[in-house]
Amino acid sequence: MDRELKLEGQATYETVALIGKAISGMYHLTVLPAVDLDMVELAVVEIGNNTVEHAYQGEQNKTIWASFKYSKSSVSITVSDNGSRIPDHLVAGLDSVEIPEMDPDDPDTWNTSGRGFGIINQVMDEIVYFQDNGKNHFRMIKHVK
């Protein structure tokens, strides 16, 4: 049986953290390995934080939506907004972004930003970005193996 949870809230970093925890709770109901739980939650929070920072550029009173669907074969998590879309040049290469290497001897490589899409690619099996009815949707899918 497929199950779905839909969440909606004000687009703030605090709301994103709550969405991450709610989705983490739903993940426990699946047959997917528990070892992936923290990374899946991190992927959700990365996309949610990108929504607050980039899609809405910190504007107040904006909405973020998230949905969590699971079946016997996969988990699908979609984070949506009605802010600025991800630029086409980034969308074209979303599935090939890797986490930048850090050099312990070079502080210039210690950036905490710019790692989100790489993290998502590392933990999720598919990512899809699309627009529908004036909303931007970022879908992350994890398959049961």
From TrEMBL:
Domain of life: Bacteria
Keywords assigned by UniProt, alphabetized: Kinase, Serine/threonine-protein kinase, Transferase
Domain Histidine kinase/HSP90-like ATPase intervals: 11-142
InterPro entries: Anti-sigma-factor_SerPK, HATPase_C_sf, HATPase_dom
Protein name: Histidine kinase/HSP90-like ATPase domain-containing protein
Phylogenetic lineage: Bacteria, Pseudomonadati, Pseudomonadota, Gammaproteobacteria, Alteromonadales
